[in-house]
Structures are given as structure tokens and as C-alpha cells.
Amino acid sequence: MKPRKDAAALLDGETYFLNMGPQHPSMHGVLRLLLRLSGERILECEPVIGYAHRAHEKMAENRNYQMFLPNTSRVDYLGGMIYNLAYCQAIEKMLEIEVPERAEYIRVIVSELNRISSHLLWFGTFLLDLGGITPFLYTFDDREEILNILDRVTGSRLTYSYGRFGGVTQDVDQEFLSMSTAFIKRLRTHFSEYHKLVTGNVIFQGRCRGVGVISPDMARTYGVTGPCLRASGIPYDIRKAEPYGIYDRFDFDVATRNEGDNFARYEVRLDEMEQSCRIIEQAIANIPEGPIMPAKPKKRFKIPAGECYFAVESPRGLMGYYIVADGSDIPSRIKLRTPSFSNLSSMVEVLADTMVADTIAILGSIDLILPEVDR
Amino acid sequence: MPTPTPTTIHDLLGNTWLVLLVATAGIMAFLTVNTLFLVWLERKVSARMQNRLGPTEVGPAGLVQTIADMLKLISKQLITPRLADKPIYHLAPWLIFLPILAAVSLFPFSESYVLHDLNVGLILVFAFAGLTILAIFMAGWGSNNKYALLGAMRSVAQNIAYEIPLMLAALAVTMHAQTMSLRGIVEAQADLPYIFVQPLAFVIYFISGLAETNRAPFDIPEAESELIAGFHTEYSGMRFAMFFFAEYSNMFIVCMVATTLFLGGWHGPFGLPGPVWFFLKVYGLILLMMWFRWTFPRLRFDQLMSFAWKILIPLALFNLLLTAFIMKVVA
Question: For an interface test with A, which of B292, B298, B306, B311 has the most A Cβ atoms less than 10 Å from its Cβ?
């Protein structure tokens, strides 16, 4: 579909083109959708990306391994902590650095807090896309608490740069742990409120059930991962499938649904928040005393020629770093495998033959982060 | 609104044109102040529901905030899109504004405060309310913007669909009252408001009224998450303010009709002045509308249409038949 050149041939008096975005109040970021519409029905949909391209991968080739660290949390600004720590873990894998126990537990706690904050923001904005404004402010209130907790230990609210090769920058104190415990307690009471306000609502169910179905085959074809994949009935979570860090020590379930529609994705994310709460509780109960960095942290280092792939479960799905080292202190190439990009590619098929109003709902339900798509 | 009865005002001024002038000015002043208050109220109510404070800075409890906002809108540049259909584009804000003035002049605020008591008052109110849809379509078409056009298309379809149950519900009331004069209908409810006689009609009327005024969960023509601002996407400054004004005034009219038809107008269970009762009821309904807006997500367009054609209209027809049957058999 290339309307710029052969637009005249396509203008048959029945259909028309609509540019949705890059500036549109409910596009999450700067996605542009080129829609061919017949009335309100979408005949074709072409996502146009690249408006938030910041050349992170190219920047990686111009600076040493430490200097790329702040970039990582800016790729996905809602899962900054997880991206950050994943990069550290990838480098640790290449250099074979041993991470102290306490640092591993801290990493799990902050990662899962980050995951909950991302899901909370998604919950609010998804309802906003559906026209329900009030839940947005409730979830932002809860999310604010997480940001305060993380701010306390990392010193920033979104782009943390908290990980270091071999550990984390700051140790957590008792106050941090008790704040996290209190937050989980508070979040659980709020969950029942959310369910009352949103989940059972007839209008909400009408907008979500059976809308935007991603079949398991479609999910596999496009490489859909994360909650979207699990909502299609495939219980694939890297924390379980290939446990990294110390995730194999925790008892938690992989939330799945079989329908693959908006409602399934909604339920999977809500369940995931509960599972994250369980992981944090276990981590807080078992966190040992001890150092948070190795005895001799690597200040300046070169990585011998070789390559490494390291994948983690980000709030949006499989997030992988593919790092190629050439023996110097500057990476030869860093490739970011980001979940939103693959999830977005499935939209060409999913959005065809839906209503304009559903476009927003479906795009909302797959939880896109545009800077992560463009990188 | 203390608009004197026709006789008093005629006696005072002795000139029909002067009467018209005073009445129009009175209604405009009242509607403007009322809209400003409603916008403030909506902000405060939504803030209370969302654990926020709402406007607090300008005036006591932020009461003057909306006046400041209006001044801002007045001072803003009026932008006309280059490819707009200019006559239609410029006319639309006025056309949405004028029928509201006419409609408000018909309401009996109490036994004596009636400007025009026509024997077809109810039909006229619906006719004036129906005119706003024309203005919305003109705005959408004249803007030459696809989002505006989509919004206008939705609006026309929605208003046609919801006007039918709206009128069918009102018709059931007129069958009881045996009159279409708004004053007559209120007088017929001196003992018992029609909401107790016609609960189903009230529910149908209120739902359709929400849709008629494009209020959530039926705010589909201006669904900001889909259509940016719908039919008024291209309007700025005071022209936008007029659409905004019309939206709130329409909401007010729908609630006034509901009060007149179902809640017994100026009648109350104990002795307060008529207009006080009338406005208490109207504002009660408006608060209900606001509560809906800040609680529910939005329906999808096709769901909205099937809800009107498949559920509301059959229900309203059934209610009408039932009313006719009971009245014939019982009476």
C-alpha cells in the first residue's frame, strides 16, 4: 500500500486514506498508521515507524561498554531497570563475572517493581484509550509509589542506570524493603477495586472480548512475545523457560489465557502483577546480607573477541542483547531485540477488517513503546 | 432564572420587541453563567472521584477558573483551515448556539416563571434540540478534515438512532398528561411524579438523553482517543468555546426535560420555592451524568447503534403499547 504514488488509482470514491499519527492523542508515542478505510472499517493498515529513531545501536559502536549503560534504560523508558540490568548481565556473561547474592536479590526486587509499574501505566492508558479516564489516575497514584521506592535507592524515576557490571550501584536499606512490602499490601487491596471498577464492566467487556484476536500460529509467525503471547495460550516466559539471574529460586506461575483477545491480554497483565508481587515477597524474605559488588570491580576492561546473546523477560516480552566484541573496549556491534517491534508487526494482520475504534483498543492492548520499536 | 411571566413583562415594557430583547439577554446571561458553573462543577466532581483537587487557584475553591479560561478562549486566534468550506464552517458555531436559546425559553421554572407556554412546547424543545445535529454535521463537513467528518458522520447516525427512543419515551408521558404543554405536564404531576408511573420510560429517556448530548459513555462523535476532537477538531478560540457551551447547555436542556416530564418540575415534597426544586432536580440529574462520564469506558460505534435499534427502540415501543393498553383497560 503506497498511497503517495498510485493514490489516484486507489481513490475509487468508496475508500479513503487516514493518517493516524504520528501526532494523535492516543498513539503511544509517535507511531503512524496509514489506514485505508471504507466508512469506519479498516481495509488495510500499514504501521509506519522511525519517528523516534535515536540510533542507539549505532551509538553503541562509538563508546566503550560502560558508556553505553545509560542508553539501555532509554530504549524502553517504562522498563528501564530491566533493560539496564539485562545489559549488565550480558556483559557479566561475556566476562564471566560472579555477582554477589545480595545484588542478585536486589536486582530481582527492583526488576519486578519496574514490571509492576510498567503494567500499571499500561492499565491506566489502556482504559484511557477505551474512554475510561478515572482508572488512569488511580493506577498513576499506585505507580507513583513505585517510582518513589525506586527513586529512594537509585536516585531517578525512569532512567535508572542502577546496574553495574557485577552488581548494583547502591545498597538497599531496611526502609526500602518495608516500603516495598507496604506497597504490595496496598496494591493488593487496590486490585479488588480495579476489578470492581473495570473488569466486570459490561461496556469494557464488550470492547475487549473477541476483539483483536492473535492466534497462536500468528503469534509464532510474527515473533510475538510477552503478555501478548501468553494471552494466546503459549506459556512462554523466559523467567521460567531459561531462568536468568536467580529466577529459578522463586515460586511463581506463568499467567496464561487461551482467547488471544484484548480481554485475555488484560487479564494476563493483571495476573502478572500479582505474580510479581509474589516474587518480590519471596525475595524480601530471603535477601541475605553481604556485598553488592564483587571484591574487585572491573573499572577498565576489554572484552576478548566473541559474541554473546542474552535475553530477559521485559514487561512487553522477550528482550535480547546480541553483543559482538572485537577485543577492544568498544563493542563492535550491539543488536537489540525488542519485543514491541515484533508485537507491532503482527498488527498488519490483526487490524485488517476492524473498526477505527478497535484500532486504538487493540494497539493499546499490546502495550507498545515506540522508542523501543525504533531504538 | 427569574424571568417574569409574559403578562408582567408586557405590562412593564409594553412592547413586544423589548420583551424579546430582555428575555433573550436574560436567557443568554443565565446560560453563560450556568455553563461556566457546570464546567467548574464537572472539574470538581471528576477531581473528587479521581483523588485530585481540581481547580483551586483562581477565586474561592477555583470558582473563577472557568471565567479565566473563557477569557483565554476569547483572546485566542480564530484559525480557519485553508481548504475549509468557509460559509458552512463559519455558520456552524452560531447554528449550534441559537436553538439552545430558543429551547430554554420554553421551560416552566415554576408556576409563574414561564416565558412561553405553548401547547406544543414539548415538540418544539425536541425540534430545537434536533437542530444541533445539523450544526454538528456542518462543522464536520465544513472543516475539511477526515477526523471531523468521521465524527460528524457518527454524530448524525447516533442522533437519529437515539432521538426515536427519546421521543417514544416522552410520548408515554404525554399519554398520561394528555397535553404537550410543558406547564400542563408539570401540573399533571402535582400528586405523583411520572417517574413512579413510567420508570422504564425514564430510564430509556435518560440513556437516550446521554447519547443525544454526546456524553460518556456515548461520547463517540468526539471520542478524543480515536477522533482527536471529532467534529470540532479544527475549531479554535471562541468558536470552539461555542461548541463547548452548546454541549453543556444541551446537557442542561436534557436534564430540564427529564425534570419536567418525569420528576414533577417545580413540585416538591415540602415547601421550598418552585424554582429551587426545579434546579435541585436538574442539578441532581447533571451530577448523575457526570458520575457516568467519569466511571464508564466508551462504547464502540456499532455497539452503540445496535443498542439503540435492537434494545432501546423495541423497549420504548413496548412501553408505549403497555401504557396505551393499561390506560384503555383501567380507565
Answer: B298
Domain segments of chain B: what residues? 79-330
Q: How many domains does chain A have?
A: 2
- When CB atoms are compared, the residue of A131, A141, A203 closest to B225 is A131
The CATH number linked to A349 is 1.10.645.10
Whether A270 and A342 share a structural domain: yes
Residues A70 and A187 in one domain: yes
Considering the domain architecture, whether residues A99 and A23 belong to the same structural domain is answered as: no
Q: What is the pLDDT along chain A (375 residues), one digit of tens a residue?
A: 444 555 555 566 677 788 887 877 767 778 888 888 887 788 888 888 888 888 888 898 888 888 888 888 888 888 889 998 999 999 888 888 888 988 999 999 999 999 999 999 999 888 888 888 888 888 988 899 999 999 988 888 888 888 888 888 888 888 888 999 999 999 988 888 888 888 888 888 888 888 888 888 888 888 899 898 999 888 888 888 888 888 888 888 888 888 888 899 999 999 999 999 999 999 999 888 888 888 887 778 888 888 899 999 999 889 899 999 888 888 888 998 889 888 888 888 888 888 887 888 888 888 888 888 888
Interface test with A, best of B45, B226, B299 (most A CBs within 10 A): B226
Cis peptide before B193 (omega within 30 of 0): no
Residue of B nearest to A129 (CA): B225
Residue A366 domain boundaries: 56-374
Q: Strands, E, within A201-316: which ranges?
A: 306-314
DSSP B118-181: -TTHHHHHHHHHHHHHHHHHHHHHHTT-HHHHHHHHHHHHHHHHHHHHHHHHHHHHHHHHT---
Q: What is the ipTM of this complex?
A: 0.77
pTM of the predicted model, to two decimals?
A: 0.84
Specify whether A111 is located in the same domain as A152. Answer: yes
Across the interface, do B217 and A355 touch by the CB < 8 Å criterion?
no
Cβ contact, residue pair A133, B296, below 8 Å: no
Q: Which amino acid is at B51?
A: N
Cβ contact (<8 Å) for A355 and B303? no
Contact B28, B36 (CB under 8 A): no
Query: How many A-B residue pairs are in contact by the CB < 8 A criterion?
Result: 80
A29, A89: one domain: no
Q: Which residues of B lie inside 8 Å of A (Cβ-Cβ)?
A: 46, 49-52, 146-147, 150, 153-154, 216-217, 219-220, 223-228, 294-303
Q: Is A222:A228 a contact under the CB 8 Å cutoff?
A: no
Which neighbouring-strand residues pair with A312? A319
Say yes or no: A27 and A73 in one domain: no
Scored b (16 or more CB within 10 A) or e, A166-195 reads bbbeebbeeebbebbeebbeebeeebeebe
Same domain, A251 and A363: yes
In this structure, the answer to whether residues A120 and A20 fall within a common structural domain is no
Q: In what order do the strands lie in the sheet with A333-337?
A: A306-314, A317-325, A333-337
